[in-house]
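F.,

This is the one I mentioned.
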């Protein structure tokens, strides 16, 4: 008996045993004496064995629960080499958990890849947005859109630099700035026209244009008659030809 108890004591004292399994005796009356005279406390041994038995039963219950969960998540993993064994090991539970975790990781990876209906919807939406009638025209239109987008991006970047705008300025601000610049240019052109015609009044400009319309047609007709009469083709030759006639 002492040998059996000593063997049990060595198991309870081993590093592999949980730290709460072994407890030293608290009194000399409750101690058993080994052959070497050292104390070994076994008053808690029945409770420890009962606890172990409960844990083994709970391990079986946990195994059944994990098997049900596995059948729901990974029903194709039906082969379990431990199904026919009476005892259940922690390794068996770990095998089921690893299979479930592997399946979850695979689903997460596959979820990042769009499905065929999703890809079809994306292509159809592109065809509607850019007026593409067939699938063969999708790639050319994509290239065209990419090229146009690059050109517009470069143009907007150059406009930002020329107008001294911040790169984050929206296109509406760029358009407004260009519009204001055009207004300024138009005002300058109007002033230059007024200075050229020698008037600051729009009505005077109209009168001068009307005078031009009245004078120019007869003058043009006279010049054409002189060219025909003198048998020349260049206006600059009219005066030399007339002098020669004198």
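My design for it:
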């Amino acid at each position: 008996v002492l040998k059996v108890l000593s063997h049990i004591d060595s198991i309870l004292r081993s590093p592999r045993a949980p730290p709460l399994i072994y407890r030293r005796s608290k009194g000399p009356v409750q101690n058993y004496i080994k052959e070497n005279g050292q104390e070994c406390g076994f008053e808690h041994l029945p409770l420890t064995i009962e606890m172990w038995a409960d844990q083994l039963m709970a391990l079986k219950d946990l195994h059944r629960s994990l098997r049900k969960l596995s059948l729901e998540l990974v029903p194709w993993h039906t082969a379990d080499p431990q199904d026919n064994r009476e005892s259940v090991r922690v390794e068996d539970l770990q095998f089921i958990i690893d299979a479930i975790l592997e399946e979850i990781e695979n689903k997460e990876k596959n979820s990042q890849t769009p499905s065929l209906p999703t890809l079809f919807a994306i292509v159809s939406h592109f065809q509607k947005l850019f007026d593409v009638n067939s699938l063969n025209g999708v790639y050319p239109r994509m290239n065209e859109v990419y090229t146009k987008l690059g050109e517009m991006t470069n143009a907007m970047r150059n406009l930002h630099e020329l107008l001294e705008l911040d790169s984050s300025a929206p296109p509406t601000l760029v358009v407004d700035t260009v519009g204001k610049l055009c207004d300024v240019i138009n005002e300058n052109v109007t002033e230059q026209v007024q200075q050229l015609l020698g008037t600051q009044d729009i009505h005077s400009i109209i009168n001068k244009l009307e005078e031009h319309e009245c004078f120019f047609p007869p003058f043009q007709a006279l010049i054409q008659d002189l060219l025909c009469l003198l048998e020349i083709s260049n206006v600059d030759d009219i005066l030399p030809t007339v002098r020669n006639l004198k």
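The first helix runs from residue 2 to 13.

Talk soon.
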